[in-house]
Design brief:
single chain; 293 residues; 55% strand; mainly beta; five-stranded antiparallel sheet; five-stranded mixed sheet
Length: 293
């Protein structure tokens, strides 16, 4: 498979305070009958890291690049302890008229993240359902969900987790979009001599030219994150192909920025053309138009 970048555009948010003063990242975009919907992670600015608290906001767009945002967050921290100190990294999927949103809940006192679920008719009316993938000693801080239906009609939930001082990608299986989830063996791992040699994190999955394709995130030991691709069989039991070089490499960062490009969502617009939404340095949101052949 060959993937080339045809265009990169800056996303724009029409927003009021307090969102206007926040960092925004992890743009999850999906297509509706009329335009595009967005869930985005927003973080207040602070010199003290522990005082930065993530929320998830909803927005809508006609063109998939300029989004008008709601004034209040769609998902805010608490009152339950699992997400008392942050709601992060949303991913969503409609099934039978219901929107299922998986997100990361953060507890600062425990320094623990867990993968959580919220459900509603749309991005403005979500109700929390609690923890779906818990923190364990084997898989710490599960987060960054990617939800997809397999060829056999069951569901797969990919997620990032921490083990052995590295981020890895796990996978769980369920007959239902809302679980319960059964953890499966990891499908792939870091490669010692390439750009994704230490850390891995999930990215969006699209059926590109009929092939299940994940635009995943990989990094070196010093957390220089890049975006690449990997393909699977229809039931997500094995890897079919994987890129050698990354698709998206961020420009050289400014002195105060991190060297990170991180994929959040993707849409196949027509055969072989994909819109890939991602963040640079955890604060600049982009949309790349990819050609896949």
């Amino acid at each position: 498979m060959r993937v080339t970048v045809e265009q990169i555009a800056d996303m724009a948010l029409i927003r009021d305070e307090p969102l206007a003063s926040m960092f925004t990242l992890s743009p999850f975009v999906w297509k509706r009958e009329r335009g595009y919907d967005l869930l985005v992670r927003a973080v207040n600015r602070s010199e003290i890291a522990t005082q930065k608290v993530a929320r998830i906001y909803y927005g809508h767009s006609q063109d998939g690049i300029v989004f008008t945002m709601d004034e209040a967050p769609a998902l805010a921290p608490g009152p339950q302890p699992e997400d008392r100190d942050g709601c992060e990294d949303p991913t969503a999927d409609y099934d039978a008229g219901t929107l299922y949103v998986y997100y990361t809940g953060w507890n600062q006192a425990l320094l623990a993240g867990q993968l959580m679920l919220a459900v509603g008719p749309d991005g403005r009316h979500l109700q929390k359902r609690g923890v779906s993938i818990p923190w364990t000693q084997e898989r710490k801080n599960p987060k960054e969900a990617t939800l997809v239906r397999a060829g056999d009609g069951t569901w797969r939930l990919f997620f990032e987790y921490a083990a052995g001082e590295a981020s890895k990608i796990g996978i769980a299986r369920s007959k239902r979009v809302d679980g319960p989830w059964e953890i499966q063996p990891d499908l792939f791992s870091a490669r010692p001599d390439l750009w994704d040699r230490w850390h891995l994190s999930t990215g969006p999955i699209e059926q590109v030219n009929g092939v299940p394709t994940m635009f995943y995130n990989g990094a070196t030991h010093d957390a220089k994150w890049r975006i690449g691709w990997i393909t699977f069989d229809d039931d997500y039991t094995r890897v079919v192909d994987r890129c050698v070089d990354p698709v998206i490499v961020p420009p050289p960062p400014d002195i105060n920025d991190t060297d990170i490009a991180f994929a959040a969502s993707a849409l196949e617009m027509n055969a072989g053309t994909v819109w890939l939404y991602y963040s640079i340095s955890d604060q600049y949101m982009k949309r790349a138009t990819l050609r896949v052949s």
